[in-house]
Amino acid sequence: MAITCRRFQTEDDYFSLREFIEKSIAASGNTFYFNLNDLEFLFDLYEGKSHLQAIKEQLDDLFLWYEGEKIIGGIFVYNRVQLFIDSTKKYLFSEMFKTASEAVNKYIKESKLDINISNFSECSWRIFEGDSELENVLIQDEYYKTDEYWVSRYFDYTQSLEKSNLPEGYSIKTLSEISNVNKVAEIYNKCLGMDMDEFTLRHANVFDTYRDELDIVVMNQENEPVALCSGRYDEKNKMASFEAIACLKDYRKKGISKAMILYALRAARDLGASVSTVFTLCPEKFPAPNRLYEAAGFKLVGKRYTWEKHI
Predict the structure, then answer these.
(1) What pLDDT band is residue 9 in, cutting at 50, 70 and 90?
(2) Which candidate, 84, 88, 122, places its Cα nearest to that of 304?
(3) Which residues have a Cβ under 8 Å from the Cβ of 227 and sit 6 or more positions away?
(4) pLDDT at 205 over 70
(5) Please, what are the domains in the chain?
(6) pTM passes above 0.85
């Protein structure tokens, strides 16, 4: 059956995509490329618009692969491709890659797609080390593996979970318990470079995977926010995924971040999670967060290397 690739079009595409991601994670185990948390963190919410309106406006760079009428994967296309794929269909990746190249270049040529590239070949890819069915296609198209990589980690709840002990005088609140979330937004901006605002923080609960218990903030002795941890929960896969974890510089090396993530892991377990996941940049360049997750009990799944085109 022929493989086709087309651009995101309707709300129905969004709901089909969600269903596909949920099923793909169950089939992929811990080496999945994309989850619902990744999807929902793509969306900026704006006052006066529903989250479905925001979704439709912000999925211009999404292309979906089909085998007949069935989604088998897709890509968010910009300078660095965000890939998701049916793990049982990787043997079709050569054809998938070709159809994506044709579809994306067509939209670029017709000036219907503004993604800061002039050709599909300018995209880079993040591929799990050893995922040969994907790597071989990139090699054949003259891509090469760079030194840049992301680390995928998971926490399996069959292992013991250490107690969460904050320094004396510090406490944890859920975001909903905080009256002034502008100071929480500042932590996103200062530590993570994310342009977060009060409206987006207050309305994140419109998403299906949002759980108040996983959106937490550490307060200092003066009851001011100094650290945050934000996760989402995929109920069908019993999986919590953590996207944003940060601590203000003046409050680091006090054990705050470790206590916070342990608290969040316990909250995820209480929700029913059997596994929690997190991605980090390469340990050589960013040792602190990697040491944090290792100390909390996260185990290595694999490395997702960046592949770029020989041009």
Answers:
(1) confident
(2) 84
(3) 187, 217, 218, 246, 247, 248, 251, 256, 257, 260
(4) yes
(5) 3-141 (3.40.630), 155-303 (3.40.630.30)
(6) yes
